[in-house]
TrEMBL record:
Membrane spanning residue stretches: none
Protein name: DJ-1/PfpI family protein
Domain DJ-1/PfpI: 19-177
GO biological process, any: regulation of DNA-templated transcription
Pfam families in alphabetical order: DJ-1_PfpI
Family matches, as PANTHER family: ARAC-FAMILY TRANSCRIPTIONAL REGULATOR (PTHR43130), DJ-1_PFPI DOMAIN-CONTAINING PROTEIN (PTHR43130:SF2)
Record-linked SUPFAM superfamilies: Class I glutamine amidotransferase-like
Length: 230
């Protein structure tokens, strides 16, 4: 069992805990949330809170049940707002939810997203003129919200930070960790997690995937492939 927190004796973290709010919704992508949360929750003097549009339990897009969440409208403030991606974003497009996102973003030090969570922030009008990452297959959709699609795995544009698709959430969270607590504490968490990926394949991007993989992807995920222009 890993230690929950890695607070060092010489940590320069602030006295007041830094409050991270992760906003989930039905069909959220589990790894978008879990990868980033694994990093956030192990940082010195950081509190991670989880909210959803209606509060209560949720189910991820892979049918994993998640326990109680706070109701988003009841959250008064946060230091960092984070919206992970998901399969069905319709709940997050509700007017009341978009209002809550804008309200919380107004006073947050950082506004962040993982995967296609950036499309939710974009729909709320929070990414106009800002560079942002997104899942590669939906990155072009950012343009309709006035955002600047960036193909980088992690992107920082002032107080806006974002990660690309799914697994990029871990890289994104380490970037956030560096921003909040410095490179040493970020790397302590990386070491604790043994995050040193050596994938057996190199098909994690359109540029590196072989033709037969692209063809199989187009057949299985036709709608996404069409959105991406494959």
């Amino acid at each position: 069992m890993l230690p929950f927190n890695v607070l060092a004796a010489d940590s320069k973290s602030e006295d007041k805990p830094f409050k991270i709010l992760m906003v989930l919704y039905p069909t959220f992508t589990l790894l978008d949330f879990a990868g980033a949360n694994e990093v956030f929750a192990r940082l010195p003097n950081v509190e991670v809170h989880v909210a959803s549009p209606d509060g209560g339990p949720l189910t991820s897009d892979t049918h994993v049940a998640f326990g109680e969440t706070m109701k988003l409208s009841k959250v008064t403030s946060c230091d960092l707002l984070c919206v992970p991606g998901g399969t069905d974003r319709s709940t997050m497009m509700r007017a009341d939810v978009q209002d809550d996102l804008r309200r919380l973003a107004a006073d947050a030090k950082y506004i962040t997203s993982i995967c296609n969570g950036s499309l939710i922030l974009g729909a709320a009008g929070l990414l106009k003129g800002k560079r942002s990452a997104c899942h590669w297959a939906q990155r072009s959709l950012l343009k309709q919200y006035g955002a600047i699609p960036d193909p980088a795995r992690v992107v920082k544009d002032g107080r806006y930070m974002s990660g690309g698709g799914v697994t990029a959430g871990i890289d994104f969270a380490l970037m956030v960790a560096d921003e909040l607590r410095g490179p040493v504490q970020a790397q302590v968490v990386q070491l604790l997690m043994e995050y040193n990926p050596e994938p057996p394949f190199h098909s994690g991007s359109v540029e590196t995937a072989p033709p037969e993989v692209i063809a199989a992807f187009k057949k299985r995920y036709a709608s996404l492939a069409a959105t991406a222009g494959l």
